[in-house]
Every structure is written in structure tokens, then in C-alpha cells.
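Lab meeting, item 3. Inverse folding demo.
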């Protein structure tokens, strides 16, 4: 999924924890004040401080790390990721479904049974028809700009445009209110994980057309919307029709949640450091680079959490734009970028490590290589210039780089601007508001020559959600496009199909690693770095576990609810 980052918000899924553990007595983790045992208890209100607004409350539209974490509080799907304190936090587990999918011998049909007693916030039972309806909304060209996987794998009729325009989706069957059957285009062994995506959230049949769900929700999770002021606050209250006995993932300990939006990153850090009033119950995204030195103070030893991300930050190169259509030009840019300077702009080694591959080390399928090496990753100007000369671009050219309106992203862009200036490429920066950034660059008609962005896998047991969304030329769409390079290479497309059909996950992961290198020979992107996540939660928070580089809202709570 695209990253909403980086210090402006919440991002990332699926990583291996470095120094984060569940709070436990004497364990040195947040939540060891109050009752002294670090155990989250029922009650109180958790505070979340963030710079940027969520992209969309509608899960068919939203698709980034920050809003996905929020969705986990208010929505449920047939299948979901295990809680972060599970023995295997990357495992897929039943949520609304009674069990994982039953797959046919040919791998084309997947059947699920809903749990009895699951309801919407209205008190209406959630039926298989509601699940079907919610999923089919993803085909609507205006609404379905979120997670793409269901559209890629389900055998929808040609030209299907969702329930509001085309009616029912015939390749999802609902023989009764508890049973739902999916027909796929081709076998895909990881289909359970596909149904964990936000685009698989059920909605009552006939609801949610147009902009109905942009500022509202129909909750199926433990919390419902209490109030929403866009750009300012979101408050959640308990959903009285959520039945804890049907939910093995969410503890739902807090009585409420308050998201305060539009706070400058430096101000967030100052509030967390001071830890006064309700801020003892607060957390936020990763701290600012300027704050890291202050966290060496022994006062914060028991509060600082550090976890790696599985998200690769990169610069996409739009192959449909002028000189960037020549692979030699894209290769030259890969040689020219000073990744060491970009790393410093990100915050240095505390915050990130230089990336030379697409798939990061924390995702299964990673293969170690560097096709565009340079001393200390500072760039090889001579090789870049030679390739530009070979491509007939020795005089250089201008390009426009899209960048988020946050300090780290802009510093990264300026580092790239200076590096490419060395080879005659004049980089102009186009700064876009964080809350609309991914929608803008994901619309090809609005996209410029290049963009600084990032990608996080939606499940990390394989790279099947890393390479295909970014480089399959058959999935370039008018909205919600993730293939920012707009690469459409027949050999890459064919290899994606071959690997996806493999039932041996180890063999598939090895093949993904080889495809990573095959893609980078085409140089559609410049991998920049993989960032760590450094958090400073309030001292009254407990149950904090971040094995995916992000705090799992589903199991978080307050140690002393009377402070909330």
C-alpha cells in the first residue's frame, strides 16, 4: 500500500520488530506507571495526535497505512491480520468469517461462512449479501480507488462498474445469508489475505453511493463515529452492537478514541515529551528527526520504541514523460542520485537505511543486489553522464518532481534536486498537500515526471503485494493508480502471472526476488531508503506492540483509565 508519511502521519504495515515488545511488568515499556504492571485495562479515551487528515473514511477509497490502522477500529472483514501480540502477527485469521476460506481443487472457488450474531452499528445483521455489496463497490470508477487486489483477482464481467451502475456482481454468489462464494480469474493461494483489505468491508445493500461515506461510516467494528470535523478532530464511541464474543482480534478496551488533526510535527513531539494532562494517553507517528537527540535523555528510556518498517521509500520515474521513456535515462538517474544525502535528509542512520532493491529486507522475497552502485551511495556522476550522452541527453533536461508538503519529504526532494543538477537535470518541485497527495499522483492525468513516495506490503509473508501493484502494466488505472512509472513490460507481466500461481510459497518468494532485479534493470524507480519507526507514546498507554512498524490500535489501551 502507499505510505502516508513520514513524519506527518501514520504508516506502514508488516515488519519484524527490532526493539518493541508488549508492555509487561518491569519490561521497560510504556504503561509501567499507574498500576505498575503495564497491563491495558478497560476504560478511558486514547488520544492520537497527527499532522495530516485521513485520506477517506470510506474503505473503498482509502488505502494507506494511517487510515488502514484507523479502519481496524470501526470496520471488520471476513478475514483480517492477527493481532500484533499473536505468535505470528503476519498470520491471516477469521474475523467475520467462521474460518479461513475453503478452496476448490482447481483453486478458482473460495467459500466462506459468516459467524452468527455479527451486526452493523444499526443493529441489522451482517449477511453474505452485505459482504458482496461492500466488495462490489470497489469496481465503481469514482469510489473504488482503494486497495486493488479484489479487482485484480475476482472474475468480474468485462466492463463491470460496481453495484450503483452495473447491478450485482455475478461472480460472487450468496446461496444463503451466511455463505459467500468467490470465483477467481486464476488460482491465487493468498486469497484469504486479499479479503483482509479495506475494500472487503461489508456495507448494507444499497447504501454508500456517491459521496455518502466520505464523511460518515456504517460501523461493523467495536467503535462508531461520534463526531468528525474534517481537518480537526475525529471522535469514536463504542458501537453497542459489536459483540466481543465474535471478535478474537480486537480487545476494544478504551471507551473512546480522539484523533486530533492538523498539529505540526514539532508540536506533537513537544507535547509527547512534556506528557501533561491527557497527553499521557497519547501517541503519534514517528518522531521528528530533530527530536531524536533529545530522546537520549534517561527520562525517556522506558518510553522510546523503535521498529523497522517494511516500507520502501522511492522516487518513481514516469516512463510516459519525454526523456524518461528511455531506459538509459532512467538508469542514469539511478546512478546520479546521492542516496547518502537523501538518507541524511531523512534523519540519518537512526531513521533509515539506504535501499538498493525494491523489496526491503524485512519482506519475504528480498534479494540482495545493487545494479547502480557508487562509493558510499553518493552517486556515480560519470556513469550517469555516459548514459545520458548515449541517450542523446548530454545537454540535460528539466523534470517536475511531485512531493508531499512535509519537511522530511521536501528535504529529500531538495537532496535529489542537488544530485541531479550535477548531470544537467533541472528538477522543479511540485509540492502537494499530504492529505490529497496519493490521490493526486495516483491519477495519471495529474501526475508529473517523478514523485517521491513509498510502498508497504499489505501482507509480508510474500512480495505478492509489493511488485505487482507497482509494476504490472495491466493495472494502470485512471484513478487510484499505483504503477506510477506506468511501465508495461510483457516479460514482467508474464512473470507476475507465473509467480502468483505458484502454490509453493518458498519458491514464489525466491522468484519474486529475481523479478525485483529484472524490474530494476528497467529502472522504473530509484529506491531511496527503508525508514525505521521511532515512537514516544504517552506513559499511560499499555499493550503497545508494533511488529509491523506501526502500533496496532486493536489491542492498545490505558494502564490507568482514570487518567483518561
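The presenter then showed the designed sequence:
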Amino acid at each position: 500500500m502507499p505510505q502516508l508519511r513520514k513524519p506527518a502521519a501514520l504508516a506502514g504495515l508488516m515488519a519484524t520488530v527490532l526493539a518493541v515488545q508488549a508492555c509487561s511488568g518491569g519490561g521497560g515499556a510504556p504503561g509501567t506507571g499507574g498500576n505498575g504492571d503495564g497491563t491495558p485495562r478497560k476504560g478511558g479515551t486514547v488520544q492520537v495526535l497527527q499532522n495530516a487528515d485521513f485520506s477517506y473514511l470510506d474503505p473503498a477509497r482509502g488505502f494507506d497505512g494511517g487510515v488502514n490502522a484507523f479502519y481496524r477500529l470501526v470496520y471488520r472483514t471476513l478475514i483480517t491480520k492477527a493481532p500484533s501480540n499473536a505468535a505470528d502477527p503476519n498470520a491471516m485469521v477469521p474475523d467475520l468469517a467462521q474460518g479461513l476460506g475453503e478452496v476448490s481443487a482447481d483453486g478458482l472457488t473460495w467459500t466462506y461462512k459468516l459467524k452468527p450474531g455479527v451486526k452493523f452499528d444499526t443493529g441489522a445483521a451482517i449477511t453474505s449479501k452485505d459482504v458482496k455489496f461492500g466488495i462490489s463497490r470497489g469496481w465503481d470508477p469514482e469510489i473504488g480507488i482503494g486497495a486493488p487486489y479484489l479487482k485484480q483477482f475476482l472474475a468480474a464481467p468485462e466492463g463491470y462498474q460496481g453495484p450503483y451502475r452495473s447491478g450485482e456482481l455475478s461472480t460472487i454468489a450468496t446461496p444463503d445469508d451466511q455463505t459467500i462464494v468467490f470465483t477467481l480469474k486464476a488460482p491465487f493461494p493468498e486469497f484469504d489475505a486479499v479479503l483482509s483489505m479495506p475494500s472487503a468491508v461489508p456495507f448494507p445493500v444499497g447504501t454508500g453511493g456517491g459521496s455518502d461515506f466520505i464523511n460518515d461510516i456504517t460501523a461493523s467494528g467495536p467503535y462508531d463515529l461520534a463526531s468528525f470535523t474534517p481537518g480537526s478532530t475525529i471522535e469514536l464511541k463504542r458501537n453497542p452492537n459489536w459483540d466481543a464474543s465474535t471478535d478474537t482480534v480486537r480487545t476494544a478496551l478504551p471507551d473512546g478514541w480522539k484523533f486530533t488533526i492538523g498539529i505540526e510535527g514539532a508540536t506533537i513531539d513537544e507535547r509527547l515529551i512534556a506528557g501533561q494532562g491527557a497527553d499521557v494517553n497519547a501517541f503519534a507517528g514517528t518522531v521528528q528527526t530533530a527530536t531524536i537527540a533529545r530522546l537520549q535523555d534517561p527520562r525517556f528510556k522506558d518510553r522510546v520504541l523503535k521498529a523497522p518498517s517494511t516500507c520502501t521509500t522511492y522516487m518513481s520515474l514516469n516512463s510516459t514523460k519525454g526523456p524518461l521513456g528511455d531506459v538509459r535515462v532512467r538508469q542514469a538517474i539511478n546512478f546520479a542520485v546521492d542516496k547518502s544525502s537523501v538518507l541524511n535528509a531523512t534523519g540519518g542512520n537512526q531513521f533509515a537505511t539506504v535501499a538498493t532493491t525494491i523489496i526491503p529486507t524485512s519482506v519475504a522475497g528480498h534479494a540482495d543486489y545493487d545494479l547502480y552502485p557508487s562509493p558510499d551511495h553518493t552517486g556515480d556522476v560519470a556513469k550517469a553522464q555516459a548514459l545520458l550522452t548515449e541517450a542523446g541527453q548530454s545537454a540535460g533536461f528539466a523534470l517536475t518532481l511531485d512531493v508531499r508538503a512535509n519537511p522530511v519529504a521536501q528535504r529529500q526532494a531538495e537532496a535529489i534536486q542537488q544530485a541531479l543538477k550535477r548531470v544537467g537535470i533541472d528538477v522543479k518541485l511540485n509540492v502537494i498537500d499530504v492529505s490529497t497527495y496519493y490521490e493526486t499522483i495516483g491519477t495519471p492525468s495529474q501526475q508529473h515526471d517523478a514523485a517521491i513516495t513509498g510502498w508497504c506490503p499489505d501482507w509480508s509473508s510474500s512480495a505478492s503485494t509489493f511488485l505487482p501493484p507497482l509494476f504490472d502494466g495491466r493495472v494502470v488505472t485512471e484513478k487510484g493508480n499505483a504503477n506510477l512509472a506506468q511501465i508495461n513490460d510483457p516479460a514482467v507481466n508474464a512473470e507476475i502471472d507465473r509467480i502468483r500461481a505458484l502454490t509453493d510459497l518458498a519458491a514464489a518468494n525466491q522468484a519474486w526476488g529475481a523479478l525485483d532485479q529484472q524490474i530494476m534493470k528497467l529502472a522504473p524507480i530509484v529506491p531511496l531508503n527503508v525508514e525505521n519507526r521511532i515512537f514516544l507514546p504517552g506513559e499511560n498507554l499499555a499493550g503497545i506492540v508494533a511488529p509491523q512498524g506501526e502500533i496496532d490500535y486493536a489491542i492498545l489501551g490505558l494502564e490507568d483509565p482514570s487518567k483518561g
